[in-house]
Amino acid sequence: AQTVTQSQPEMSVQEAETVTLSCTYDTSESDYYLFWYKQPPSRQMILVIRQEAYKQQNATENRFSVNFQKAAKSFSLKISDSQLGDAAMYFCAYYGTNAGKSTFGDGTTLTVKP
Amino acid sequence: EPEVTQTPSHQVTQMGQEVILRCVPISNHLYFYWYRQILGQKVEFLVSFYNNEISEKSEIFDDQFSVERPDGSNFTLKIRSTKLEDSAMYFCASSEALRTFYEQYFGPGTRLTVT
User: Fold this and answer.
1) CA A87 to each of CA A50, A109, B39: distance values in angstroms, whole numbers, following the listed order
2) Which positions 55-114 of B are in contact with A (Cβ < 8 Å)?
């Protein structure tokens, strides 16, 4: 079974600084997708960034980028120029095309200090 | 931009009552999902649905749960006799495909409170 591990329950960053959230996963599949979701206090799940496993190039979306290390099964999220609105719970998720479902990590609560 | 919608946003029910949570997936999507998130915990997969039948279900999805696509647009989750531990946020999701350009779109969630 696939597992997703987020080893940092809480992280904090100063406004305008950079922070990296860690995620590792375990799978035997070769075809899968990885996601980072943001969950603000409203508890809505907002997709931040997506990475296809077959792509070697790391995905980027404005201030958000990932460091995808396929061999190490690592998928970290870097948030640059942190803003107060980035404060939320962040979930790493794995979707395997054979399993047909998403598996989520425990989440990391990010605090942004003004 | 198309989006998944869910109703109601918050449902309060008494233990033992039946509840139906409703979702309207994105119109051209073929795969539908329900996930659950107990407060303070991770998001857990409940069930996936394709071509009018369950594709996969987790151990959480026992006989108390059922899903249905009663018409061309709605996708429902029914809990027959709610328990206190069913209190959670329930997310519906849909995707266009499974293996090509996969992206799972989540709805805003329904907060279920069982008293």
Assistant:
1) 19, 8, 18
2) 55-56, 89, 91, 93, 98-99, 102-106, 108-109, 111
Phi, psi of B29 (to 5 degrees): -85, 150
Cβ <8 Å between B106 and A106: no
Element (H, E) at A74: strand A74-79
| Rounded Cα gap, residues A47 and B102, in angstroms | 13
pLDDT digit string, tens, across residues A25-66 = 999 888 899 999 999 988 888 999 999 998 889 999 999 999
pLDDT at A24 exceeding the cut of 70? yes
Q: Which residue has the tokens 């329904």?
A: B110
B51: left (phi over 0), alpha (psi -120 to 50) or beta: left
Closest to B28 measured CA to CA, from B98, B94, B74, B77: B94
CA–CA gap between residue B6 and residue A104 (Å, rounded): 21
pLDDT tens digit string along B63-87? 999 999 988 789 999 999 999 999 9
Q: Are A73 and A27 in contact (CB under 8 A)?
A: yes
Tell me the one-letter amino acid at B63: D
Q: Secondary structure of A3-65 in the HEC alphabet? A: EEECCCCEEEEECCCCEEECCEEECCCCCEEEEEEEECCCCCCEEEEEEECCCCCCCEECCEE
| Each residue's pLDDT tens digit, B8-58 | 999 999 999 999 999 999 988 989 999 999 988 899 999 999 989 999 999
